């Protein structure tokens, strides 16, 4: 008989509302957990939701609900009937909780009350700012949280002559949900060994910092300047071809040189040119776009791939299922409830099949479960701290740049021994993002980005292009519980380290492979930078002003891949815990991105509605936009903005009063969301005029005190100045032997079982732990010296 589903032993009670909680519990249900969704008699608001405004017939559910709620159960109670949940909570393993739920205000169902009454429970809370701190009860939306995080400005996204641009598609909700499921599974590992639950307090502001920005505070403090302070459109970026949109990237000098040759202008290559690549590309953009416009998407992509230039067709809800790569890999499957197309799970396992999704529940279909007799669980441990969930686990981290290291960074922060593998001739690429001249001594140790992504890790250098390096790598693999890698597929295949070969070295190892586009299919060997993944998944399509080409987010593609790979790993660990069996986890970057962009594909397949970019507007709030304020920014530019998003009629009434009830705002037609949406242009004009005469601080003070979701659009390097992040200790002071002391991000979640938080150690120097690790493999000091002489290991770059 096949083994039971990896998470079959877990009962999860879902007391959340909104996309984040629903996606968190979807990931858990997809892994085999029993998820019971608690609903009021009115039902979850997602049952009647459609981002396109499609009509949903009475008695049926919206397509997004059907996608997010597959394999779950539904039990209905009134908000005054919390006692009916007592038996279920006694036998449950975890609760997922959010303030948007109608049950959040019930005194016995607050996180603290739940844990006090059921101390075995893991209680995961998903809130905009966290459960505690000066902003904990402030009004917020996904849009205003993006603004507070610095993610709206991001890595200089958007043209400087327009408003900054947020990442479309409610990305913060999806990313926060993926993070919540990983944090829940980590806490359940601790509960399995200690018998004690805890509160897992996730802040969507902090997940936005982690997913939408690139360690800007660390960069500012170490380099004494921002990583990037100006907005620009990356060229080529998204361009119009003869039959659709295609995206090309030229992020490095080599890629720029190759692009010049590709478009027939090798004379543009000038290593002594005074302009940076971005500026030079901007000058030549008309000619580049003309070359692209004369060719089909397929032709441009084929030629760019031949030159190893990152590229992708720009995917959206209408064309995604037509992509040959997705077709060959079976990326899209039929929804079990309504038959529309949806992305399959973002990872696959070689040793077992995850259970196929079952139909979403009808409202109250499983209410009888509340009276079922189940074995009650009890906490067994009463100590102050229950330790970190990955203590005792050894991880070989064969990753680089952002996607892979962001996955292993969480493992290291939560107690795993993570060994980051590099070589002196092929170091982690983020060491190159140092912001210092290569003539500086130890310049490769001065990268703020490497520092931020690799705290708490160890470093070994091995040149595995040599026979002896490969031998040592194989010996090291035998000592590891987990191997995580994100090379292009051919790298490990060429040295005979595919999964079957790794498994022969250690039978129970879990190998997580994070290729950009998967281990097979036509796009297998495409270069997979974050922006290419965004282009290929629909994330780019929804980002930008509606009258212009889409704009690549340039951020979320990498960390989103990392958190989904971690979820896959945690599910594989649960399988190994119960069976002793290892597995290959294939967690491609593009599959992770398609899952958080799923609403586009679902809306088109279910309703024929193509979701389009709306600038800084969105499907939930009206008005929602960025509004320019008075005053100059820190760079002396007239470029200060606030984000305002009105989700409810009560919030509109509060905003109207806060701005002095001007005549235009008292129009009864604006009292409803539909009326405000219909008059959005006029509201933007009038509200924008009010904001333009005031400072961002004054606007935030007036509106936030009135209960209106509002935020300053901050520069990402100013995150550390936010009092909420300070109160929660999100940044830790870490001292590096070369860089000195600077603020580093911790994790966007607090575990009450470890109130002291994790100890943060500096990122390792190149090869810092060579002797320690190689000695552990049985090598002598003389052996290690020979390796250094033969340049198989080292502590200095070899170029």
TrEMBL record:
UniProt KW keywords: Transferase
One Pfam short name: CoA_transf_3
Entry keyword Transferase: yes
Transmembrane stretches, start-end: none
Source organism, top-level taxon: Bacteria
Name of the featured protein: CoA-transferase
Gene Ontology MF, one: CoA-transferase activity
Gene3D superfamilies from the UniProt entry: Crotonobetainyl-coa:carnitine coa-transferase, domain 1, formyl-coa transferase, domain 3
Organism annotation: Gordonia amarae NBRC 15530
Entry-linked InterPro entries: CoA-transferase_III_domain, CoA-Trfase_fam_III, CoA-Trfase_III_dom3_sf, CoA-Trfase_III_dom_1_sf
């Amino acid at each position: 008989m096949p083994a039971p589903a990896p998470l079959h032993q877990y009962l999860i009670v879902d007391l959340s509302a909104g996309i984040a909680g629903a996606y968190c519990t979807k990931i858990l249900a997809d892994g085999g957990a029993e998820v019971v969704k608690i609903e009021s008699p009115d039902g979850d608001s997602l049952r009647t939701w459609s981002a396109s405004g499609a009509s949903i017939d009475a008695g049926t559910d919206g397509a997004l609900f059907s996608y997010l709620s597959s394999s779950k159960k539904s039990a209905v109670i009134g908000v005054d009937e919390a006692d009916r949940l007592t038996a279920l909570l006694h036998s449950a393993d975890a609760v997922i909780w959010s303030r948007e739920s109608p049950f959040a205000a019930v005194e016995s169902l607050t996180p603290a009350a739940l844990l006090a009454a059921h101390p075995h429970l893991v209680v995961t809370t998903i809130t905009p700012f966290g459960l505690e701190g000066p902003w904990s009860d402030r009004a917020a939306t996904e849009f205003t949280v993006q603004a507070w995080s610095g993610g709206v400005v991001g890595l200089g996204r958007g043209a400087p002559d327009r408003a900054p641009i947020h990442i479309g598609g409610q990305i913060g909700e999806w990313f926060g949900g993926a993070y919540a499921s990983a944090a829940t599974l980590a806490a359940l590992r601790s509960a399995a060994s200690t018998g004690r639950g805890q509160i897992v307090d996730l802040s969507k502001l902090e997940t936005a910092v982690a997913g939408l920005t690139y360690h800007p505070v660390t960069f500012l403090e170490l380099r004494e300047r921002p990583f990037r302070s100006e907005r620009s459109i990356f060229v080529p970026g998204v361009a119009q071809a003869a039959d659709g949109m295609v995206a090309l990237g030229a992020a490095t000098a080599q890629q720029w040189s190759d692009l010049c040759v590709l478009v027939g202008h090798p004379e543009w290559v000038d290593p002594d040119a005074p302009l940076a690549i971005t500026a030079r590309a901007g000058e030549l953009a008309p000619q580049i776009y003309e070359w692209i416009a004369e060719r089909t998407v397929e032709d441009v992509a084929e030629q760019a791939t031949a030159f190893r230039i990152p590229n992708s067709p720009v995917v959206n809800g209408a064309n995604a299922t037509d992509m040959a790569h997705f077709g060959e890999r079976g990326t899209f499957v039929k929804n079990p409830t309504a038959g529309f197309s949806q992305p399959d799970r973002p990872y696959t396992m070689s040793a077992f099949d995850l259970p196929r999704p079952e139909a979403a529940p009808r409202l109250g279909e499983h209410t009888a479960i509340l009276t079922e007799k189940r074995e009650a669980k009890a906490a067994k441990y009463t100590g102050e701290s229950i330790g970190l969930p990955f203590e005792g686990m050894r991880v070989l981290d064969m990753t680089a740049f952002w996607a892979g290291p962001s996955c292993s960074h969480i493992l290291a922060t939560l107690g795993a021994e993570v060994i980051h593998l590099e070589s002196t001739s092929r170091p982690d690429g983020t060491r190159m993002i140092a912001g210092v001249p290569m003539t500086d001594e130890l310049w490769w140790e001065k990268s703020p980005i490497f520092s931020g992504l690799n705290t708490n890790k160890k470093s070994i250098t091995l040149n595995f292009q040599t026979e002896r390096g490969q031998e040592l790598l194989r010996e090291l693999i035998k000592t590891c519980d987990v191997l995580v890698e994100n090379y292009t597929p051919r790298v490990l295949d060429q040295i005979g380290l595919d999964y079957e070969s790794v498994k022969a070295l250690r039978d129970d190892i879990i190998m997580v492979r994070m290729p950009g586009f998967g281990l097979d299919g036509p796009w297998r060997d495409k270069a997979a930078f974050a922006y290419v993944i965004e282009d290929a998944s629909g994330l780019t399509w929804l980002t930008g002003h509606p009258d212009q080409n889409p704009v690549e987010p340039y951020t979320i593609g990498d960390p989103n891949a990392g958190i989904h790979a971690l979820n896959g790993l945690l599910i594989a660990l649960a399988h190994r815990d119960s069976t002793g069996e290892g597995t290959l986890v294939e967690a491609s970057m593009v599959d992770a991105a398609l899952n958080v962009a799923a609403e586009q594909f679902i809306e088109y397949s279910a309703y024929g509605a193509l979701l389009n970019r709306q600038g800084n507007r969105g499907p939930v709030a009206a008005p929602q936009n960025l509004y320019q304020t008075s005053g100059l920014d820190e760079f002396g530019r007239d470029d200060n903005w606030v984000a305002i998003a009105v989700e409810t009629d009560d919030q509109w009434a509060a905003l109207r009063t806060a701005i002095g009830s001007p005549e235009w705002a008292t129009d009864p037609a604006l009292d409803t969301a539909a009326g405000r949406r219909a008059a959005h242009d006029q509201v933007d004009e009038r509200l924008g005029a009010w904001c333009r005469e005031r400072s961002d601080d004054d606007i935030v003070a007036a509106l936030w005190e009135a209960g209106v979701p509002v935020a300053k659009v901050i520069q990402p390097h100013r995150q550390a100045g936010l009092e909420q992040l300070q109160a929660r200790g999100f940044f830790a002071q870490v001292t590096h032997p070369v860089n000195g002391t600077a603020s580093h991000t911790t994790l966007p979640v607090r575990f009450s079982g470890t109130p002291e938080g994790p100890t943060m150690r500096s990122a390792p120097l190149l090869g810092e732990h060579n002797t320690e690790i190689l000695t552990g493999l049985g090598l002598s000091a003389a052996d290690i010296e020979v390796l250094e002489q033969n340049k198989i290991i080292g502590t200095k770059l070899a170029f």
